[in-house]
Amino acid sequence: MSDAQRRIMDIEVEMARTQKNKATMSHLCALKARLAALKRQVIEQQNKKSGGPGEGFEVRATGDARVGFIGFPSVGKSTLLTALTGVYSEAADYEFTTLTCVPGVMTHDGARIQILDLPGIIEGAKDGKGRGRQVIGCARTCDLILLVLDATKPVTHKILIEKELHGFGIRLNQKPPEIYFKKRDRGGLNFQALVKQSVLNKDLVATILREYKITHAEIILRQDCTEDQLIDVIEGNRVYIPCLHVFNKIDKVSRQEMEIFASKLPHFLPISGALGWNIDVLKNKIWEYMHLTRIYTKPKGDMPDFTQPVILRNYKTSVKDFCRRIHKRLMDEFKHALVWGSSAKHFPQIVGSGHMLEDEDVIQVVKRI
Ligand SMILES: Nc1nc2c(ncn2[C@@H]2O[C@H](COP(=O)(O)OP(=O)(O)OP(=O)(O)O)[C@@H](O)[C@H]2O)c(=O)[nH]1
Ligand SMILES: [K+]
Ligand SMILES: [Mg+2]
Predict the structure, then answer these.
(1) What is the pLDDT of residues 16-65, one digit of tens each?
(2) Is the pLDDT of residue 236 over 90?
């Protein structure tokens, strides 16, 4: 165990025995910042040792968006890939059947979605156990994570896996915090909260920044933020990915057990990959959770092409984002666009490149001549 790992343990112990209240808040914030910095240090050390960060697997990104399967061994990931995409990935009743990344493609509502079957991960994956770091590195590149769980196994597995992903900077079902943070060379701490804060204030922010040896900075909180969110922003390198918890093998548990899960867990979907139960519902959920936006193009004087939408992702739905998806240099020739659909005030609306498009809008780009 490295020195940093030992210090991480000490801090975790101290945090566990510190009660959370107003008087201890400053101390806890300092500990949390110290912990985050140490954890980053450990990952960087491991990257050095292994010759690079957990880059994931060499799989070419195809299609409009990417989904990855994360779960313990033998929960049924490969069986599910085959059920969703028809692509064969070896499935068997022993652990670590899958040793690499197997891609498939699912077509849904005009979008081509790449689905990645991945090796199972185990506790300690992020710290270098098994192929864990490679698997989690791959998960970071996904637009949606399917956390695949075995319904016959304890629900605590879900928490363990979430912890592994969290430790690697993946934030599930969270939006990026609305925090503006910029280091400065001088001027001290310029702190503004645009919304009433239930936790943070200038002193706590200063305490956290002190752990990073930052004394000059500008911080604007545009939402009610937690100390963890602020630390995430200072650390940077976080990814925010939607996640669906897929409970597989429900053919092996009772209906009552299922209903208990369903009532307690959000983002939950029971399925049976082997028997094909709920697979169509899962396909729809995948679509829904990815927040993809379909845009139909209309050539001048012609009908819109409703067969092949252009897919925009991650809420990047401006006309400019659309143009970039079509062609690198389209923006250079852009004059304005005509838009029909729910984002338009009247049909067609003449818009500039900053206009935000909505799902199933129709667009015609007018170029400068
Ligand atoms: N009863 C039942 N068994 C399933 C289901 N899905 C998968 N299995 C079985 O569970 C075992 C493991 O399935 P795999 O698809 O290999 O699981 P995996 O998660 O890909 O496993 P690794 O690649 O080893 O991590 C196999 O024996 C499957 O037949 C299901 O929905 N119901
Ligand atoms: K298996
Ligand atoms: Mg497998």
Answers:
(1) 999 999 999 999 999 999 999 999 998 888 777 766 555 568 788 889 99
(2) yes
Ligand 1 — pocket residues by CB below 6 A?
71, 73-79, 91-93, 95-98, 119-120, 248-249, 251-252, 272-275
Tokens 């990931």, residue?
77
Measured CA distances, 37 to 13, 27, 30, 213, 329 (Å): 17, 16, 11, 11, 41
Q: Indicate which residue's Cα is closest to atom 27 of ligand 1.
A: 93
CA of 21 to the centre of ligand 3 (A): 45
72 CA to centre of ligand 3 in angstroms = 10
Cα 43 to Cα 46, 49, 168, 184, 310, distances in angstroms? 5, 10, 8, 27, 38
Q: Which ligand is nearest to the CA of 82?
A: 1
- Closest ligand 1 atom, CA of 94? 24
Residue 71 is encoded by which pair of tokens? 């779960």
pLDDT digits (tens, 9 = 90+) for 6-24: 999 999 999 999 999 999 9
Assign domain 65-174+239-290 to its CATH superfamily: P-loop containing nucleotide triphosphate hydrolases (3.40.50.300)
Atom in ligand 1 nearest the alpha carbon of residue 252: 1
- In the chain, where are the structural domains located? 3-52+177-235, 65-174+239-290, 293-367
Q: Report how far residue 280's alpha carbon sits from residue 230's, in angstroms, rounded to the nearest whole number.
A: 39
| For the CA of 73, the nearest atom of ligand 1 | 25
Q: Classify domain 293-367 at the CATH topology level.
A: Ubiquitin-like (UB roll) (3.10.20)
